[in-house]
Design a protein that fits this description.
heterodimer; A: 196 residues; alpha/beta; Pyruvate-ferredoxin Oxidoreductase, domain 3; 6-stranded mixed beta sheet; 6 strands; globular; B: Rossmann fold; Rossmann fold; 6-stranded parallel beta sheet; 23 helices
């Protein structure tokens, strides 16, 4: 078995720690893993991405259009991950928007119609910004929210109980908030799976 | 997780490998993608630091010389740097190769194919060819750890420095790595005076050293061949692929589909290459594909060997319009396209869509003191009637260069460490009346002081702005001589004053005072400097130094001037309320937005 995952987002959103956790989860189950983190300029408002490969492979990078799972922690960042999305790829997107510098200073507009375009393609879009706000959960827990969704979409490799055990071991602050976000993401994903 | 296996990046594995090999001295200068080796030693292996000397040096030449002398004295020593740093260290490195070593000497140099954080796609293996010395290139973290020991052994056995070549993917990819035993070994000082070896006293001595080095390379080639320091994979007979390093992973991932058709020769040492090794492996093949990252080092060598042995096999690679591009990093697609060009179709997946990506250019972080410094510079230029489309502002390496991006876009040049002042002087000689040079603190110490001395001697009208955030911020906050962590600090203004350059020190969080200082700088005659000192806000916040700001909602009219002038990511426009918001966790109270706001709608709490 080989499983190719790529996670993307804007710097500071927790892409790297999300991938660390998924990697540990796979290692505990004695899968081989390879991780590659493109993190160089993360803290200066740039895009970040990380590859995770599970199974017997040599390279941490997989070919284009051959991801099994794509996770985007920011809506427009999904556009930067399209080159890994093939016809069988599962795509999980957080509807959370972080304008770029170009958007902020009014040179470019944040792309519109993304929700429409992505849902037509059959991608799973989670209303992350709304869910977190309504439940008064800090933005910093967005990655655990998505983790909850991953535990539903890919429950065979990332079973809920195992993820929660590793998550609890790793968390240093906002423990309760992260657990709540995780469960919220789970519920949302279950809901999405049921939807026609 | 199993106790003796740890998920490690290539750089972390190399750090561990150094300790397992019993290294005594490690020195380096930070540079992506090499920095985590020393970071890891300093943070994760503190308990060994009383027995292993580890240092962030002021530049790579400093690190190189420390390591060279330690190796001459019989210790195991390593220097770490990015590819550009090797250029700085090379003066000493190349000379040290002629002299040879007693203890093992390993230079870990990380190249950046694809230019994720660099200025050039420099292939450091060229230094091995030039020196000449062996270069070893691991393909994965686990192997990187083991190759450190092998590199030390080869270096000691053949008494020659060795390059351990990394690339971005090797350095920053991770896999579970089995841990070996850390064996700290104290080695006695054993340097002996030997003028014929450790000096360059006359051409006879130097030529003898060169001749001896060539002999060593010959012996190393025999060792590589006899001890099988290479792998062969697959037993196909259509195409022979010769490869090394991370690039070989993309080939190996295709083996499931192609093992009947291709055979792979994976070199541990991309240089030197034993002739016999190539001669043996090319037998029966008519097509040879070379897969390596950046320059055609292996390819040139293989072509030369084939010509020498009179082989008719055709070589495909980067040279002579080959199927592999001469630039950019290796990818799975490049390998499969090259194979397709040689008649082997590889199963490829198709895109599901074809839409343009989302651009997210990097900028100053919220609270970055540099943002205020550049703002103050622009304001001062405006108030003095200096046209920013006429005045050249040179940039340097590090976070200070971000003023080349929006919203400032005022930096004209980026060349290399220290070049801000060097280029400024050239523009003055070529006809400009005034040039502004901007440089960070670490870059100032690294390579800018000689240029400033020349500027003083020539009384050049160069205006030097040293943006001192007290850390090597861009590469992950390694310490600089100004870092507020020890009693021993070196401050740029002391050096500038000693040279004879009149200097003002400002706090960028004082916006008004900073603008005044910039006006003084620009209107005075001759070489002058401003040191803008304020700790990097990311690091300050980590150390518990945190300010913030808040919007006074009644006063905010939603004009967004604060956002468009600063592009600060702590500022967010609330579309519903049509007013600004401040993201408290990000804001560090630099006060620039409050200074800009025409309605006094922002209240600042300075850190």
């Amino acid at each position: 078995m080989t499983y190719n995952i790529i996670v993307g987002g804007s710097g500071g959103q927790g892409v790297m720690s999300l991938v660390d956790l998924l990697a540990e989860c796979a290692i505990v189950q004695e899968y081989n893993v390879k991780v590659m983190k493109y993190k160089g300029l993360a803290q200066r408002g740039g895009s970040v991405r990380a590859f995770l490969r599970i199974g017997d492979v040599e390279s941490p990078i997989f070919p284009r259009y051959s991801a099994d799972l794509v996770v985007s922690l920011e809506l427009a960042e999904t556009l930067n991950l399209l080159e890994y999305i093939g016809h069988e790829t599962k795509v999980l997107i957080a509807d959370y928007r972080i304008p770029s510098v170009l958007n902020a200073i009014g040179i470019e507009r944040y792309p519109e119609d993304l929700l429409d375009m992505f849902s037509k393609s059959g991608y799973y879009i989670l209303p992350a910004e709304r869910d977190l706000k309504e439940n008064k959960l800090p933005v910093i827990t967005l990655n655990t929210y998505m983790l909850g969704a991953i535990s539903v979409i890919l429950s065979d490799i990332f079973p809920k109980n195992l993820i929660l055990r590793i998550l609890k071991k790793r968390l240093k602050r906002f423990v309760d908030e992260n657990i709540l976000s995780f469960e919220l993401g789970m519920k949302r994903a279950i809901h999405l799976l049921k939807a026609p | 997780m199993i106790q003796n296996i740890r998920l490690m990046s290539g750089n972390e594995a190399i750090a561990r490998g150094l300790l397992e090999a019993g290294v005594n001295v490690v020195a380096g200068y930070p540079g992506t993608p090499s920095s985590e080796v020393i970071d890891t030693l300093l943070h994760d292996y503190k308990e060994y630091l009383d027995r292993v000397y580890v240092e962030w040096s002021v530049n790579e030449k400093v690190a190189a010389e420390l390591a060279i002398a330690a190796a001459w004295a019989g210790l195991r020593a390593a220097a770490t740097m990015k590819m550009s740093g090797m250029n700085v260290a090379s003066d000493s490195f190349l000379s040290a190769v002629y002299s040879g070593v007693k203890g093992g000497l390993v230079f870990y140099v990380a190249d950046d194919p694809g230019v994720y954080a660099g200025m050039v796609e420099q292939d450091t293996r060229n230094y091995a060819v030039m020196a000449p010395c062996p270069v070893i290139e691991p393909r994965r973290p686990k192997e990187a750890k083991n190759f450190v020991s092998l590199a030390f052994n080869i270096s000691e056995e053949f008494k020659i420095p060795i390059i351990l070549r990394g690339t971005t993917v090797l350095a920053h990819s991770e896999e579970p790595v089995p841990l070996g035993e850390i064996r700290i070994k104290k080695r006695e000082f054993a340097f002996e005076k030997d003028i014929a070896k450790y000096t360059k006293a006359g051409r006879k001595i130097v030529l003898e050293q060169h001749k001896e080095t060539l002999n060593k390379i010959k012996k190393i080639k025999e060792a590589i061949y006899k001890r099988k320091y290479y792998d062969t994979i697959g037993n196909g007979s259509e195409i022979l692929i010769i490869t090394a390093g991370n690039a070989s992973n993309y080939v190996l991932d295709l083996m499931n589909d192609l093992k009947e058709k291709i055979k792979v020769l994976r070199l541990w040492f991309p240089w030197p290459i034993p002739e016999k090794l190539i001669e043996e492996h090319v037998e029966g093949f008519t097509k040879i594909l070379i897969v390596e990252e950046i320059d055609p080092i292996i390819e040139r060598e293989v072509r030369a060997i084939l010509q020498e042995i009179g082989s008719k096999a055709k070589v495909f690679g980067k040279l002579f319009g080959g199927p592999i591009p001469g630039y950019n990093e290796m990818t799975p697609e490049i390998v499969s396209n090259a194979l397709a060009a040689l008649g082997l179709e590889v199963r490829a997946k198709n895109p599901s869509s074809n839409v343009q990506g989302f651009r997210r250019p990097i900028t100053f972080c919220p609270g970055c003191p540099h943002r205020v410094t550049y703002f103050a510079l622009v304001e001062a230029m405006k108030s003095l009637g200096l046209d920013s489309s006429e005045i050249i502002i040179t940039g340097d390496i590090g976070c200070t260069i971000l003023a080349m991006n929006k919203p400032f876009e005022i930096i004209w040049t980026e060349l290399s460490m220290g070049a801000s002042v060097g280029l400024a002087r050239g523009f003055l000689k070529a006809g400009k009346d005034i040039v502004i040079a901007t440089v960070g603190d670490s870059t100032f110490f690294h390579a800018t002081i000689p240029q400033i001395i020349n500027a003083y001697l020539a009384n050049d009208n160069v205006k030097v702005i040293i943006l001192d955030n007290s850390w090597v911020a861009m590469t992950g906050h390694q310490p600089t001589p100004t870092s507020p962590i020890t009693e021993r600090r070196v401050l740029p203004e002391k050096i500038l004053e000693a040279i004879g350059i009149e200097t003002k020190v400002i706090d960028p969080y004082d916006v008004k005072g900073s603008i005044e200082a910039m006006k003084w700088l620009l209107s005075s005659k001759g070489p002058k400097a401003v040191v803008a000192r304020r700790e990097c806000s990311l690091q300050a916040i980590r150390r518990g130094i945190k300010g913030t700001a808040m919007i006074i909602k009644d006063k905010c009219v939603g004009c967004r001037l604060c956002l468009s002038k600063t592009a600060c990511m702590a500022l967010k426009f609330n579309e519903k309320e049509k007013k600004m918001e401040i993201i408290k966790e990000l804001c560090n109270g630099c006060g620039l937005c409050a200074y800009i706001c025409p309605f006094d709608a922002i209240e600042v709490k300075k850190p």
